[in-house]
Amino acid sequence: MKIAIHRNRCIAVGNCAALAPEVFDQSDEDGTVVVLDAAPPDHRHEQVREAALRCPSSAIALHGETPAHDG
Amino acid sequence: MTESGAIPIAGRAAECPFDPVPELYEAQKDEELRRVTVPSPMLGEFDAVVLARYDDVKSVLADGGLHMGGSMPYQAGNLLSYDGPEHTRLRRMLTGSFTARRARELKPQIEGAVEAALDAVEKAGPGADLVQLFCAPIPTQVICELLGVPYSDREEFQRRTQVALDFDISREEQMRQAAEMEAYMAELVAQHREAPGDNVLGRVVRDFGDQLTDTELAGIGNMLLIAGHETIASTLSAAIALLLRHPDQLAVVRDDPSATEGAVEELLRICAPATILPRQAAGNICVRDREIEEGERVVASVLAANRDLGSHDENLDRLDVRRPPQRHLTFGFGPHQCLGQQLARVELRVALPALFNRFPTLGLTVPHEELDYRTNALVFGVDSLPVTW
Questions:
Q1: Cα separation of B322 and B189, whole Å?
Q2: Global ipTM
Q3: Which of A39-53, B2-16, B66-80 has the highest mean pLDDT?
Q4: d(Cα B284, Cα B281) in Å, to the nearest integer?
Q5: pLDDT exceeds 60 at position B248
Q6: Chain A interface residues facing chain B, Cβ-Cβ under 8 Å?
Q7: Would you call B211 an interface residue with chain A, using a CB distance cutoff of 8 Å?
Q8: Who's near B141: CB < 8 A, 6+ residues apart?
Q9: Orientation of helix B137-147 relative to helix B200-208, angle to 10°
Q10: pLDDT class of B312 with cuts at 50, 70, 90
Q11: HSE, side-chain direction, 13 A CA sphere, residue B96
Q12: Closest chain B residue by Cα to residue A51
């Protein structure tokens, strides 16, 4: 799994940083997403998928797996 | 346009104040979009398209096709008064102060506020009203600290936020209270201009003060206070009332710290304080190929959407704090999604288990049916919770 961010879409709600704090953080300046681990280990994939799904601006793209669907 | 019906848009079932009226579920099942008449303190009555399905609400809130549409009073600095790039610009000045990390860092202060509230309840003794002594003071304390509101002003602040959202109080009185609040915020802003405090409002003044007028800064302060106070107080009151109706669920929240996060999401889903989200179509938009015309008003029912079965067959009216996390729209969705949601979560996660651990035998002093649920106010909650232990 590789994480890519559509930075201009991020609205800094912080769901990703709350759901997967080891993988996502937020900038102190404007709260937008900061990726701590762009290729997270397997045991974090579930959290990362949840974070991508719950992102209200679809700013998180996941590569190297079946495409994330918008639920 | 299909018929304007009389669905009580925020209506709740006669037998349970937590459940939507059956008409809302009927609207949810309907393949056509229904138009209903919605009462509004700001706009009088207006006709609106009802969205009651989770997917419909989420998609229209996410894609930017809706504007706020003046359904709340305009206030410079209040994010609910802005759309598009102006909204983004203003919101970005605040988002750095409401990150998940900052919410976690505030936990000790929140714990302090919760302990102080619990002490006040204990001191008052059996018969104490949890709304006055627990649900309202905790978020007030937290948000006042974020804004640098002195302790001596806090009681007055609480009274004003309560009045501002009460349907039974005249429009004139509400406007008067709002004006007083704005005047007070102007004073706070002047103090921060002089010496920016180590808090959210001080930070905005320090980092963006040259780009904002005093009126905008006061509006930001006002918005954060109202948004941070009444919503959380109401969610706490409703969550406590709901848990007291379900002692087995309450026991989980009290005894199993590993269940807290999931329990809070489940309580947020069922007790959503903002039950309708009023918007206006910015252009012609489509929901499942059904058209909504530019300028038409749209009301999203969070109450119904949070219990949208979709393809599931669970009973989503039932409280189950161990339920696998269900998606909900309690914080809205898209560009206006609640700025303070991570902070709200931490407050609820600290407050609820602490309450039931301090008072393990907590119960109401009145029958459940006698509780006064604010089913017709803008913000759903319980007016008072007299308890014993």
A1: 44
A2: 0.77
A3: A39-53
A4: 7
A5: yes
A6: 11-15, 17-18, 21, 25-32, 54, 56-58, 71
A7: no
A8: B113, B116, B117, B154
A9: 30
A10: low
A11: 16
A12: B327
Q: Which of A11, A58, A69 to mutate to test the interface with B (most CBs of B within 10 A)?
A: A11
Helix axes B107-124, B137-147, angle to 10 degrees: 140
DSSP-assigned beta bridge partners for residue A66: none
Reply yes or no on whether the pLDDT at B157 is more than 60.
yes
At B260, is the pLDDT very low, low, confident or very high (cuts 50, 70, 90)?
A: very high
How many structural domains is chain B composed of? Answer: 1
pLDDT of the residue at B40: 74
Amino acid B167 reads F
Judging contacts by C-beta atoms under 8 Å, the chain A residues touching residue B324 are none
- How much of chain B, in percent, has pLDDT values that exceed 90? 59
Domain that holds residue B242: 4-388
In order, the DSSP letters of chain A are: -EEEE-GGG-----HHHHH-TTTEEE-TTT--EEES-SS--GGGHHHHHHHHHH-TT--EEEESSSPPP--
| A2: pLDDT strictly greater than 80 | yes
> Poorest-confidence range of B62-76, B180-194, B224-238?
B62-76
The DSSP bridge partners found for residue B297 are: B48, B280
Closest CA to B196 of B145, B141, B140, B148: B148
Q: What is the largest CA-CA distance in chain A?
A: 33
What CATH number is associated with residue B13?
Answer: 1.10.630.10
pLDDT at B378 over 80: no
The B residues from 69 to 98 touching A (CB cutoff 8 Å) are: 88, 91-93, 95-98
Q: Closest chain B residue to A28 measured between Cα atoms? A: B96
Q: How confident is the model at residue B362 (pLDDT cuts 50, 70, 90)?
A: very high
Domains and CATH numbers, chain A: 2-63 (3.30.70.20)
Nearest CA in chain B to A59: B334
Provide the Cα torsion B97, B102, B108, B113; round to 10°: 40
Question: Which residues neighbour B360 within 8 Å (Cβ) at sequence distance 6 or greater?
Answer: B254, B389
The residues in B 106-125 lying below 8 A from A, measured between CB atoms, are: none
Token pair of B112 as six digits: 């302090």
- Asked whether the beta carbons of residue B99 and residue A21 sit closer than 8 angstroms, the reply is no
How far apart are the C-alpha atoms of A1 and A39, rounded to whole Å? 6
